[in-house]
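for ur thesis appendix - GDSL esterase/lipase. copy paste whatever u need, i formatted it the way the template wanted (i think)
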Amino acid sequence: GVPHPTPYLAGKSAEDFRRGVNFAVGGATALGPDFFESRGLKPFVPVSFTNQATWFKNVLQLLGSVHNRTRIMATSLFIVGEIGVNDYLVAFAGNTTVEEARAFVPHIVGAVRSVVTEVIAAGARTVLVPGMIPLGCEPQLLALYQSGDHDPASGCIKPLNNLAELHNRALNGMLRELRRAHPGTAILYADLYGAVADLIVSPRKYGTHNSHRLWSTQATD
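the 3d part is after this line
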């Protein structure tokens, strides 16, 4: 029954964002265009966490006094992500190897840390950070790496799922550090990897006999 938050670009006043604000943009990356261009890569859209952080600051200014902002921040739920999938997709579209993409992990996790730290500094007391999906089960990558090392149980690509697991371990490690630094803030991790992997391996539990079709549908929504 919770209403969808207003897309940032569709609102203009504090009243427009009274029930929340959504800064997400399809195809957006955690890392900025400079990071990719320095590696000969081109993002799908020119929007990253940097833009979204600026938009967040703009909304803060709409909320009036510092006291009012602090009150709203403390009673709001912040969801930072899920983000990072597009960073890896940009890399693979530019023929980056899975091994080379592993070097992206600390940069992406660092970008997440920066944004989480920023919302906490603004007064957030409840922050939810979703983890990475199983990349090796992503339809676009399954099509790209048809001859890859596939898991017989799921049909997913093992090296890509290993990359996603590496990402999630680094993300969890970073969140543990933030919890120690901000004991008054609830910093939560959402395990998207486990949820999606279970759906793919055990589709009948969720009312379907074709896990890849269901996953493809979810991935494009």
